[in-house]
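Hey everyone, long-time lurker, first post.

I ran two proteins through the pipeline my lab uses and got sequence/structure pairs for each. Pasting them in order. The first:
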Amino acid sequence: MGRKTYETIGRPLPGRQTIIVTRNTAFNADGCESASDIPAALKLARSKGTPVHIVGGGEIYRQAFELDIVDIIHLTTIQTTVEGDIHFPTVPLDTFSIISDKFFHSNIDYKYECFARTDRRT
């Protein structure tokens, strides 16, 4: 995850190894590791031998699409209006197709969609 997202959450994600992407080489967070960019974070994450998940924020998601490293997208859209200027990038439907979706009624309704990469990499 990106540093700004980590600072919003304020702690490592429970039950997971948390790697924070930051350009600040002095940044340190208890219970987390850090990397200077997404490729370095991926190398560190893959060395753990567990599945890798990109959890935000907006700049990290944008870079992940640009680096062409995304295979599966788990997207939850909350059905409410919120203030802010950070958004998940538009899913490129020429590269991904929806494989499941479900709407949930709750105190704040939300939609869950799962997309999978459909293009063939050479």
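...and the second, right after it:
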Amino acid sequence: MSDADEQSWEESLIADMREHEGRPTSGPLAGHPLLLMRDRGAKTGEPRHAVLTYTRDGEDYIVAGTAGGSPRTPAWVANLRVNPDLTLEIGHRSFPARATVVVDEAERQRLWAAHVVALPWFADYPDKAQRAIPMIRLTPTAS
């Protein structure tokens, strides 16, 4: 897929998410719980964004740095380590949040197990990636 095609696909996905409360109705992510995370680049400080599948842990949103099972951790994980303050958009809501990359291994495994229960297609990503999948807690903050 060319960069232009990928950008067009992502723009369509985001529009579908916004129209359907964060659960697109078409394409390969139809019905999946998705959020739009707006963060800043680790090196440049430039605005970045990522569309991510999430689960919940209490009031927090939990995302996994799978990169679809790629052997490389997605760049947005490094961004969040340096710049943890971000904005989440889910459906028609947009709000500030703070990211915490989970470092406690027992907690990371607990969150991963809950993620896989809710989103079973994630189960084979660690084997495909040959790496531990980072789990990130996104905690809403006061605006």
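Reply from user beta_strand_b:
Welcome! Quick read of the second one: The radius of gyration is 15 Å. Strands lie at 34-40, 47-53, 55-57, 60-64, 85-90, 93-101, 135-140.
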